[in-house]
Amino acid sequence: MGLEVEPLGSILSISTPSGAVMLSKEKIKACQVGVASHMLDVTLLVLDMQDFDVILGMDWLSANHASIDCFHKEFVFNPPSETSFKFKGAGIVCIPKVISVMKASKLLSQSTWSILASVVDTREPEVPLSSEPVVREYPDVFLNELPGLPPPREINFAIELEPGTAPISRAPYRMAPAELKELKVQLQELLDKGFIRPSVSPWEAPVLFVKKKDGSMRLCIDYRELNKVTVKNRYPLPRIDDLFDQLQGATIFSKIDLRSGYHQLRIRESDIPKIALRSRYGHYEFIVMSFGLTNAHAVFMDLMNRVFKDSLDTFVIVFIDDILIYSKTEAEHEEHLHQVLETLRANKLYVKFSKCELWLKKVTFLGHVVSSEEVSVDPAKIEVVTSWPRPSTVSKICSFLGLAGYYRRFVEDFSRIASPLTQLTRKGTPFVWNPACESSFQELKQKLMSTLVLTVPDGSGGFVIYSDTSKKGLGCVLMQQGKEVAYASHQLKSHKQNYPTDDLELAAVVFSLKIWRHYLYSEKIQIFTDHKSLKYFFTQKELNMRQRRKVPHSAALITKQAPLLRDLERAEIAVSVGEVTSQLARLIVQPTLRQTIIVAQLNDPYLVEKHLLVEAWQSEDFSISSDGGLTFDGRLCVLEDSAVKAELLAEAHSSPFTMHPESTKMYQDLRRAYWWRNMKREDADFVSRCLVCQQVKAPKQKSTRLLQPLGVLEWKWESVSMDFITRLPRTLKGYIVFWVVDRLTKSAHFVPGKSTYTASKWGQLYMTEIVRLHGVPVFIISDRDARFTSKFWKGLQLALGTRLDFSIAFHPQTDGQTERLNQVLEDMLRVCVLEFSGSWDSHLHLIEFTYNNNYQATIGMAPFEALYGKCCRSPVC
Length: 877
Description:
The chain has about 900 residues and is an alpha+beta fold. The protein contains 26 helices and 33 strands. The chain folds into 6 domains: about 5-90, no CATH class; about 135-370, Roll (HIV Type 1 Reverse Transcriptase, Chain A, domain 1); about 375-450, 2-Layer Sandwich (Alpha-Beta Plaits); about 465-555, Ubiquitin-like (UB roll) (Roll); about 595-695, Orthogonal Bundle (Endonuclease III, domain 1); about 720-870, Nucleotidyltransferase, domain 5. It is globular.
């Protein structure tokens, strides 16, 4: 038709009369439509629409002064400078219907007027490999099927298990007849390729099917139980925004996708039995890496970084098995393609040609559309937002904010818009969906659907920062050559909201310099703010302490090794009033452990049933907390067979804050905050399987001899016991532990020292570490160590008014508490040597914390609770 199509400045979301929602990014200006022999101008938005050819909306009708006569079914146009005219439709158009061949033959025999039409396949034909330049030279890389087992590589996939893990076996899932048929076919294919082999392993994982986009079935193995006991590989995945920053100046792109990438990496021979699968048709084990393993992405990322180490971030970026090649010119791109394909050929890595996209000016990669000038959101990923239902639970809000947060760098004022929704995710906030939440939900969807594109920094400098602040948060935007590069925002904590305006405005500047340091390093920049006092910041004679702390920090971000004054000269601060709106921030944080448990409760049938009983007022023991969690006697319910339970057990037993307690202490610590069925038995089983406990703790039996009872105490820290543990491994702080324990609350302090310390030195430690915190005791019980029987020690206690009681030599029954504490402390020191890095004295403060926060059967609580009236908070509870 010869119409000129222009790009829109942003992607628009359009609702059609049929109820569909479509995205438009192009328009046609100066187009004319004929209405009743009159030509009228119209600007059209281009849509991929099948129901209608053209839709003329209310804005166009209003601009042409049109009115609707419903009785006569006609439009009346009254243009200001022309005579009015009418338009009447041609009536109802019949919608074509599908009829049978016999019906069509009958109508033709009756001389019915007919039109013969043929269906044309509008899909673009697949381009053969032989017609593509460069890649046609590598047919051995673009194979239709993998040739067999991958060759030995620099790394293999290994599975390291937690100590004491026994083989895990799970029964197979039941399948429909069609699934069983497909299972048999796919198992045979894997056998033919050599990817699996028959197994006699004690490990067994069930299989299941998941439908692909094309309707075919993907074979999956449920490795969740194995993943729980696997030591996690912390190999880092690259940041998405860092990958896109490497594309500066690139104009030509090619995207390469490996064929079944995970199947191109072998499993370490000793770990093959661990990933065995159990099915209706036999017991098999994978020889190559399978889907569903917890460390698969990290190991494969490690492999790809090793393969492309020479070209990485030069003309190649890699994210797991997705490879993007970028170049500035076509000649460069041809050379880069050759190098990448040669590398793949040398490493015998194979590519799926049908999923490759070559010689592109614009490429879709990791949910973004990338071109030479800009990065935008992939419309296909955002379309799901248009039909997103209103969230009804906290977990559904978190899901929505998770998607929105992935693209938050594209949305201006994201924090302010999302603030009502994020308020609902806070602990203790009741779930009430008010008009503010609805407005936030709808506005955020609209912003995501019509988000502006961001430019790719070109490396030429000239960055400009606009910053602003309020009592709720900080916000800033980074620009280059008048185009937005990124948005950023940060929420202020409650105490920072009371800072003066000068400090908050300076904090916004420092925040922007810190978060965009990788862009601004050694660059001359301009900073615009609407706070005029910052303009005179560098000439100000006196700064408060908070401002002094921020100045060298922000300057060091710009120039690493330059003096402070030279750094400050590189930044120019200007005042801009009213040009940039506030970027109020609200960080979307990962859910806490409690929030994770509350969300997971919805997947446990037993807890869901109890939840329904509570809502029906039919349960007395169970209740629902203010944050929506199901509790039993005020303790949060943990679902069965969950990774969270395994994390809780490990944290309550093996962390530096617990130091491998016995099962009773571990149970008492956990039951303060959590509940699940058979909790005490599972705690005991967990402790019994702990290899470290078996190594460091000797069996203990109650003494059959008579013990010497001591008098009843009246107040805390009036009567204490003390002793020394000697001949420990030498450290910088010493090789002796001097400990003191209160006989009433059982709370204790552990002080490291050296055997060369004099009695005067020990007396000084006693005054600073014990008397300073708890006052002077009335009684001290100890053995007859030379340090306790010295004239200095006796004289010191006489001056303080403390009575010394000594146990009988070679008769420890007179002071059983001392002997028991010696055993406990020695066990904890052995745990430190086996479990944690560093010398034992570096962990002594954690040992003291653990001892004072562990449950004591003799007093029915933890020493910390007996001393202060409340248990000390720990990472577990």
